Amino acid sequence: MIYLPIEKLTEGMELARNIPGINPMLPFAVTGCKLSERMIGRMKTIGVQGAYICTEITQGIEPEDFVEPELKAKMLTSIRDVFDQSLKKFTFQSSKQVYEEIAKVAESVVMNVLNKDKYLFQMIDIRDYDGYTYSHSLYVGILSVLLGKYIGLSVSNLNDLALCGLLHDIGKTDIPIDITNKPGPLTTDEFEIMKQHPSLSYKKLGDHIVISQAVLQGVQTHHEKFDGTGYPFGLTGKDIPLYARILAIADVYDALNSTRPYRKAWSPRRIFDYLTSCSNTHFDPELLTAFLHCVSAYPIGTIVLLSDGSSAVVKDNTPGFSLRPIIRFISPPQKAGREVDLSCELFNLTIIDDDEC
């Protein structure tokens, strides 16, 4: 199968993976469905970024789900329920139920990561605009735990880290919706209001949910920057709690990797270049180096354009070589089907991102 962005989808293509719906438990379209122009138009309207498609040339190329689809749907439903309950204001009983529910999701995230043979995250998440908040929370949790596992944190710490990721933005439920859902850049005044959300998250969780101080501090300080220019306290370096330094990287990575109503997702090379440029300013350089070993710029199934003008599909990735995956050529015809490991120095090919063409 291959992953195609929404603008490359055409009528008659066969889905290789479900397209999620507004309700995570009810897909918009299922595996095997043939796309119609009407379906593609609707997918654009709700903000679906792309889809996995069946093709003959990519047979045997199968992205591994980091979280099984059914479990992921349950996780997203639980996260949605927690945010919905937050909007209604917590009571003692509801806060207890919320904690038990989100703690189960956190444990599931950790077990999924621990059960993976590779440290490498190489899955494209198919999401829409409406579900962004919930899928972002889930993937920040997954990416944070993946990095935490890589640097050797205990299972107990990983559970805490997962909670940080799942709950880091819950304070946004106390921010006016016209600011959180604004389809464009915030004004200076609006940004000052938005900057309150880490402290609002801390207060909301600390007042109503029995949760560890380490998790609360991680949530409250995930927008601090390594050079002291972040908020709310302007902390620097290792004075920023470890969980927050991890969350900061996962949060920015997932945000840039997602299409929003006001901008497209950034290209892989642009994201990696940006993260690298922020080492020692926004991000802890040691943690960032570790993180870049944990994620693949070009997940399995991605179509890539190469410096010699040929195109290929990503078959797999090698940890430590995020920008140089194992590929299978699609074109030109004389190369079609041939496989090359770009991490080998013998090959001088490079991947050209859309914004470099």
CATH architecture call of the largest domain: Orthogonal Bundle
Q: Mind describing the biggest β-sheet?
A: 5 strands, antiparallel
Order of strands across the biggest sheet? 6-5-4-3-7
Number of individual domains: 3
What is the CATH C level class of the largest domain, in words? Mainly Alpha
Q: Roughly how many Å apart are the termini?
A: 25 Å
Total helical elements: 12
Tell me roughly what share of residues is in helical segments: 40-55%
Report the β-strand fraction as a percent range.
5-15%
The helix-and-strand class reads: alpha+beta
Mean pLDDT: 86
Number of strands: 7
The oligomeric status of these chains comes to single chain
CATH homologous superfamily designation of the largest domain: Hypothetical protein af1432
Radius of gyration using CA atoms only: 20 Å
Helix/strand order, N-terminal first: EHEHHHHHHHHHHHEEEEE
Unreliably modeled segments: none
The coarse silhouette is globular
Description:
The strands form two sheets. Strands 6-5-4-3-7 form a five-stranded antiparallel β-sheet, with no helix packed on it. Strands 1-2 form a two-stranded antiparallel ribbon. By secondary structure, it is α+β, with helices and mostly antiparallel strands. It folds into three domains: 52 residues, Molybdopterin biosynthesis moea protein, domain 2 (Alpha-Beta Complex), CATH 3.90.105; 224 residues, Orthogonal Bundle (Hypothetical protein af1432); 54 residues. The protein is 41% helix and 8% strand. The chain starts with a strand and ends in a 5-residue tail after the last strand. Helix 8 runs antiparallel to helix 9.
